UniProtKB/TrEMBL annotation:
<protein>
    <submittedName>
        <fullName>NADP-dependent 3-hydroxy acid dehydrogenase YdfG</fullName>
    </submittedName>
</protein>
<dbReference type="InterPro" id="IPR002347">
    <property type="entry name" value="SDR_fam"/>
</dbReference>
<keyword id="KW-0560">Oxidoreductase</keyword>
<dbReference type="GO" id="GO:0016491">
    <property type="term" value="F:oxidoreductase activity"/>
</dbReference>
<dbReference type="Pfam" id="PF00106">
    <property type="entry name" value="adh_short"/>
</dbReference>
<dbReference type="InterPro" id="IPR020904">
    <property type="entry name" value="Sc_DH/Rdtase_CS"/>
</dbReference>
<dbReference type="InterPro" id="IPR036291">
    <property type="entry name" value="NAD(P)-bd_dom_sf"/>
</dbReference>
<comment type="similarity">
    <text>Belongs to the short-chain dehydrogenases/reductases (SDR) family.</text>
</comment>
Length: 262
């Protein structure tokens, strides 16, 4: 994994919209939600985005659809825990990064994980451990800059483990706790953490699944994140009503909770 292995994409003409972010790193560069976050930000001409992910061709195609940005792609595998520090060091050596969006994620059906514990390990590495090793590698650089924003994609699944997807829920609960602790540890450094908790998002990750109540879309998540970036919020639920609903989810008696089919 090296930043030398990149693909440059020239962005389309810009319209002069404005943002505070000059250089952005999207981990999980082909993520639908990540792409919608980029589109929703008010990026001024000349902003750079580094799409870090597995499929360079797909990311280059998606990058061509991002107006206002100069786009590059770099290889990034969330499960390559040994490679994260080197990649991050190389990217920061090229210049400051204003916004890091940690969006890599995998949703494998629970039944498949029950039958293949190693696949469950991969899910945990992708949804939790890889975020930890990558973001902790970025933290010293961000502290040294004295500014920056880390956006972490948690989930409503972090609130309470459901039997229908408890390995995914465990990973998201761990990631959510990590992000909250990281936010506190960075307090006063000039670096901020924005924790995003979407509900069911109708898109590539949930393809073929019937939408859950209060389902949302990647575009709605992108818009909510962009608004939170501007407002300085530290947590955003999408849709917003999930924040209130989550209290109810926590309080539901366990015999009832256990009966939930999904
Ligand atoms: N969709 C939902 O309902 C929902 C709800 C709440 C939270 N979230 C979270 O939001 C984030 C973005 O999800 P999304 O809806 O945008 O789904 P998505 O479009 O499937 O994006 C997930 C991205 O993660 C990447 N990824 C998976 N394994 C990876 C690995 N080992 N190394 C590097 N990248 C890897 C995928 O790469 P490839 O393109 O190579 O497959 C994909 O680009 C995830 O963390 C997800 O858990 C999603």
């Amino acid at each position: 994994m090296s930043v030398n292995e990149t693909t440059a994409v020239t962005p389309a003409a810009t319209t002069g919209r404005r943002t505070r972010a000059g250089r952005i790193l999207l981990l999980g560069g082909a993520s639908e939600i990540g792409q919608e976050i980029l589109k929703a930000l008010d990026a001024p001409p000349g902003s750079e985005v580094v799409l870090a992910g597995r499929d360079q061709q797909r990311m280059a195609e998606l990058g061509a659809g991002l107006p206002h940005f100069t786009v590059r792609t770099v290889p990034y595998d969330a499960t390559d825990l040994d490679g994260h520090r080197r990649l991050v060091d190389e990217l920061f050596a090229e210049g400051p990064i204003d916004l890091v969006v940690s969006a890599a994620g995998l949703l494998t059906p629970q039944a498949e994980l029950d039958a293949d514990p190693r696949a469950a390990g991969t899910l945990i590495e992708t949804n939790l451990t890889g975020h930890v090793t990558t973001l902790l590698a970025a933290v010293p650089h961000l502290r040294a800059q004295g500014r920056g924003l880390i956006v972490v994609l948690s989930s409503v699944a972090a609130v309470r483990p459901r039997r229908a997807n408890f390995v995914y829920g465990a990973a998201k609960a761990g990631l959510d706790a990590f992000a909250r602790g990281l936010a506190d540890s960075l307090h006063g450094s000039g670096v901020r953490v924005l924790l995003v908790r979407p509900g069911f998002v109708i898109g590539r990750m949930t393809e073929g699944m019937p939408p859950a109540p209060a389902a949302t879309t990647p575009a709605a998540v992108g818009a909510a994140v962009a608004a939170a970036v501007r407002s300085g919020a530290s947590v955003v639920w999408v849709p917003r009503s999930l924040g209130v609903l989550s209290h109810g989810l926590r309080l539901l008696p366990r015999p009832l909770w256990r009966r939930l089919k999904r």
